[in-house]
Amino acid sequence: MQAWRRCWALAGLVWACLCSLRLLIWMGQSKHHVTYHPIDLFMYEAASTHQSYAQQASASHTLEQAVANYLTRYKNHPPPNFDAWYRYASERHSMIVDDFDSIHRDLLPYFALSPKEIRDRTQRLLQTPWHNATGITIRDGKSAISTHVNDDHRWMMNGLVEMIGKFSEWLPDMEIAFNIHDECRIAAPWEELHTMRSPAPLDTNVVPRNQYSRNRAEQWQTVSTEQSSDIVMTDLSWEPIFHSHGNAHCPANSAARTQRHWDRGQLCTDCAAPHSIGNFLANWTDASDICNQPDMADLHGFYMAPSAFKTTHQLLPLFSQSKAPGFSDIVYPSVWNWLDKAKYAPNDEYPDVPYANKNGTLFWRGVTSEGMSPDRGQWEGMSRQRFLHVLNNINLNGATQAVPIQYDVEVPPDPIKHLPATTRQRYVYKKVPISTFTSLIPTDVHFVHKFLRCWDIDCPHQAAEFGLAEPTDFQAHWQYKYLLDLDGAGFSGRFLPFMHSHSLPFKAALFREWWDDRLTAWKHFVPLDLRAHGVWATLAYFTGLEGQVDGHRVKLEPHLHQGELIAGAGREWAQKVLRKEDMEIYFFRLLLEWGRLTDDLRDEIGFTVSASA
Ligand SMILES: *[C@@H]1O[C@H](CO)[C@@H](O)[C@H](O)[C@H]1NC(C)=O
Ligand SMILES: *[C@@H]1O[C@H](CO)[C@@H](O)[C@H](O)[C@H]1NC(C)=O
Ligand SMILES: *[C@@H]1O[C@H](CO)[C@@H](O)[C@H](O)[C@H]1NC(C)=O
């Protein structure tokens, strides 16, 4: 039982170098105290980040403007039938009209492959059921399942047919390979990706045809009923995959490719520093760059022992619901959310009361689904287990986390400027034992049902560590102010309902989804580092903290208003850009792009405004 003790020691933050150095640069102040709480600064920055995002994302108000904007952004004409997409989006009052950068990031490497090669690779994926990819076919404007689908995933494929059916009349004939696993799988290496060209420079003298090729159905070989055994992936389920696949997209000289973080009990401060201020997650975008984070290899179930991971280093065009940093899967909006598999639906028994009236407890319920723990204690490093450990103070041996607390400084009168004596508030970092946090700040975060995805000794060990709580109704979430959100085997299916509620979501995640550009951390939700070393300090900012540490009184005022602001801004923005309509609009545009990408005439087709006149 020594291994986990070392691992959990991560909870006790080695805070000194992080705080002193970065806060020093940040505030240009003495290394021991600062005027603002870092979260005040993050919220201030996030407001302007969001504002500039929203402005450029929704600049166009007419089709003409949207086309011109597309050309400027993506150095290409929009794909054929863009006018139909624009109509679909504007009829549904889409706030986001211009910024679909994530689609372009996902598809860009595939432009290095010929349309025929992309079609062949899709075919190869679908032809062999072993790959666990299921096809959707579009013919004559109708969508249908094209391959073998197993019963477990029929709901998902039916949902996809229905969702795509909303706009399939505008799509060209084609095949799409969907990943039925939660885990992403396409680990194209940096050596290949960094040389992949962007689309050929656009010849603006050529007027594109607003039409996909006519013979597309013949170009796509249909998947024969005879199942192939031609296997183009490798099965690394249950294996540690960071150093072979998780870091594949990173430059050859990056820390993730050249270094190993051997001492798992120590917080890797160099790994966290680029995206942190103190022990707070300062930049959500930078946090997803794992190329400087070799310690991640042992901090997430997906990297340590994914429950399903049939993978490849080849650029195979596979559509997935979410992906870990650097993977080349093409992300689409999950039908899990579109079908309301976890629905925000408060009712009389479980109302979503105003923020101020909610129970100020941090709440989480879930199962041990993040990865596999066959008998080698992998569970010790998984983020779900680590967060529950730190929040429930299990076997932490007196570990501490640093938290900025407030104290008053007497400011003497200034006779020259005619200022009277005052007091000013300063913050100083103080190491607080986790047991003090747990005695002062309420949390209710527990596993339910049973310990899954473990074998042998790893099940009883977890049972002894954590115990189980009663499962609760999903709608019971809304009674709590603070909702913890953690990855499972893939993305967390409950995050979008959390966003729609009056509660405040706290999110730690490796996996990123279709909406990642749309939300701004600290404006719409509270981000947490996967290392969990800042979880108490972050929570304490909102709840406040007042008690005795080492015989001294420590005090941090609660920031109830700030919590309410983020919860409210997140909910309001979610109602504008994370609706089911927004999922359809995103998917529609993605599939128009996919249609062009796979068209033999892709350099000659596109939408121009004159085409619609
Ligand atoms: C994946 O493929 C294997 C081999 O064909 C099959 O046994 C398994 O049931 C499939 N998994 C899922 C989740 O469909
Ligand atoms: C976060 O990091 C990204 C990428 O490095 C950068 O573009 C952005 O300006 C940063 N945001 C803030 C608020 O510093
Ligand atoms: C708040 O929630 C906690 C944990 O679920 C519970 O123990 C406590 O009784 C609740 N407080 C109130 C005032 O309902």
Structure description:
The chain is built from 24 helices and 19 strands. The chain is α/β, with parallel strands linked by helices and 613 residues long. The strands form seven sheets. It has a five-stranded parallel beta sheet. The chain has a three-stranded antiparallel beta sheet with strand order 1-13-12. It is globular, with a radius of gyration of 25 Å. The termini are far apart. One 2-acetamido-2-deoxy-beta-D-glucopyranose (NAG) is lined by residues 129-130, 132, 150, 152, 180.
Present the secondary structure layout:
Blueprint: H1 2-8, H2 16-27, E1 33-34, H3 38-57, H4 63-74, H5 82-91, H6 101-107, H7 115-127, E2 133-139, E3 142-145, H8 154-165, E4 174-179, H9 190-193, H10 216-219, E5 234-235, H11 242-246, H12 255-258, H13 269-272, E6 276-277, E7 280-281, H14 284-287, H15 301-304, E8 310-311, E9 319-320, E10 330-331, H16 335-338, E11 359-366, H17 383-392, E12 400-411, E13 422-433, H18 434-440, E14 443-447, H19 458-466, E15 480-486, H20 495-500, E16 504-508, E17 526-527, H21 535-543, E18 545-549, E19 552-556, H22 560-577, H23 580-597, H24 609-612
Parallel strand pairs: 9-10, 11-14, 11-15, 15-16, 16-17
Antiparallel strand pairs: 1-13, 2-3, 2-4, 5-8, 6-7, 12-13, 18-19
Helix pairs in contact: 5-23
The structure holds 2-acetamido-2-deoxy-beta-D-glucopyranose (NAG) (3 copies).
